[in-house]
Amino acid sequence: MVLFRQELGDVLRDARRAQGRTLRQVSSDARVSLGYLSEIERGQKEASSELLTSVTGALGLPLSFVLREVSERIAIAEGVAVPDTVPDDLAGHAPSLVGAR
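Structure for XRE family transcriptional regulator, as requested:
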């Protein structure tokens, strides 16, 4: 079973390591406890939207980039392809979310 929190943790850890940064450095920059960030990266805790925004900001990454990477990893685990556009057969069935705020 694929869990969002595990994939999210993997993406955050991979990004941090790619930058050559320690958990301590990122937790300090994000103002999140070291232990809690460690649990997030290991997929043991769910990250709130506020915490996730702080961590992605500390990593210098847009939240949308992180969420897209998580989505792509989940799709691979599920064995599905995520199209870049809405397929024609689905376009007429879902209400447009553009400008829905």
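The radius of gyration is 16 Å.
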